Amino acid sequence: MPDSAIPHQPHTFALWREAQDTRVRTRLGGIYYLLAWLLSWLFSTAPSDMLLSGLLGTALFTLLLALRWLHRLPQEESDSCLRAWIDRHWSLILVTSLAWGLAHAWTLYSTQFEPSRLIATLSTVAFSTAMAFSFSMRKGRCILAMLFLYLPGLAALGLHWETQQALLITLAFYLSYLLLALSRSHREYQATLALEQELLYQRERFDQLSRTDNLTQLGNRLQFNTLFPVLVASAQRVGSPLSLVLLDIDFFKRINDEFGHALGDACLAAFAERMRATFRRDSDALLRLGGEEFAVLMVDTTLEQARELGEQFRQELSSHGLEVQGRHQPLTTSLGVGCFDSANDASSAAFFKRVDDALYRAKANGRDCLVLADLD
Ligand SMILES: Nc1nc2c(ncn2[C@@H]2O[C@H](COP(=O)(O)OP(=O)(O)OP(=O)(O)O)[C@@H](O)[C@H]2O)c(=O)[nH]1
After folding, report:
1. Mind telling me which PROSITE patterns this protein's record contains (predicted)?
2. Which CATH number do you get for residue 267?
3. Ligand 1 pocket member 18 (CB < 6 A)
């Protein structure tokens, strides 16, 4: 299963995992109910005398089996879809359990089933054991299913208390053991789920850290390399404008040389903070490409809109500089700005180069200016 298909919200993940587990564990179960019924019927005293009820039972368990198989997991992995799927699937499990419980009671009650009674009782024990160990995700529903499997048979045995008390007591005793086993297997399921969620969280956190620049908390070069081609491909497909702004601080080396590397670092962090204040849309991706070079990727943004924002950023920085470590630090930046053009840009790399060339020209023009990327 690709990582992208796994829901990342903890609650959705828990529902998704439960739905997957339920689906996998329920797939084979339905076959055994059908088999148990066929064996109980075919080994009864005279199966041909019960042709109609035998066939009706077979049809019922075949239908329930088919419904289980056909009930596929939802395509959409939202909380509500997953919850609805789980609820519907549990309805099938509960109906099947009740159907079998009643079939078992019938085999205990009717003398026609005398030769196959043991088959039916052993099947009930097997089904409820499987229930306790395999469907412990939902404790309450699992208990209900086990009671559906068991109680009709116990009631039928109760009607013949004189002769059946030993079997009834033994089955009731085993049921109490299963309820204890269910509690333990439910706790274990929850613990495994919590562990899986923790692992998922840690992996995401690690992934996030590996894509974040430590100094500025902007996305880093790795994040840019991942995001940029995806956004370009999407702009190409949808035809929406995608703008790229490249920023390079002017004469940054002098700041390091004059005031030290620590102040240089603080300048970079303050510069990133200023970027956040200007490029504020949730969809704007702010990145530090390395050293004193930054980028902003703006989806659904025309060249003119990107130019306006870039120019506003440049002017504010040029007029006010930055407040760094309690002192005023004059600072300017050069910018290259471009908008993806499918007729011009054969690839994301070609688009980047066009904007990078504009930045280069901004530097060559004397810095502290914005240059628009050329179109051929
Ligand atoms: N403090 C600090 N300095 C850095 C960091 N990364 C790169 N630099 C410095 O940034 C400076 C970049 O210098 P240059 O590439 O010559 O560019 P510039 O001085 O800004 O000149 P122009 O870009 O041409 O305007 C170098 O002195 C690097 O050491 C960093 O993380 N922290």
Report:
1. GGDEF
2. 3.30.70.270
3. no
- Separation of 226 CA from ligand 1 center, angstroms? 24
Write the single-letter amino acid at 69: W
Measured distance CA(272)–CA(151) in Å, rounded = 68
* Within a domain: 214: no
Query: Cβ(243)–Cβ(306) under 8 Å?
Result: yes
Ligand 1 close to Cβ of residue 367 (< 6 A)? yes
Residue 367 Cα: closest atom of ligand 1: 25
pLDDT tens digits, one per residue of 167-186? 999 999 999 999 999 999 99
pLDDT in tens, 74-89: 888 889 999 999 999 9
* ipTM field: 0.94
> What is the distance between the alpha carbons of residues 34 and 58, in angstroms, rounded to a whole number?
7
| Phi and psi based region of residue 301 (left: phi greater than 0; alpha: psi -120 to 50; beta: remaining) | beta
Tokens of 104: 């078992």
Please list, in sequence order, all residues whose beta carbon lies within 8 angstroms of the beta carbon of residue 112, skipping any fewer than 6 positions away: 44, 45, 46, 49, 50
Amino acid 304 reads E
Place of tokens 């066929």: 38
Are residues 227 and 96 located together in one domain of the fold? no
Ligand 1: residue of 221, 246, 253 to mutate (most ligand atoms within 8 A of CB) is 253
DSSP 250: T
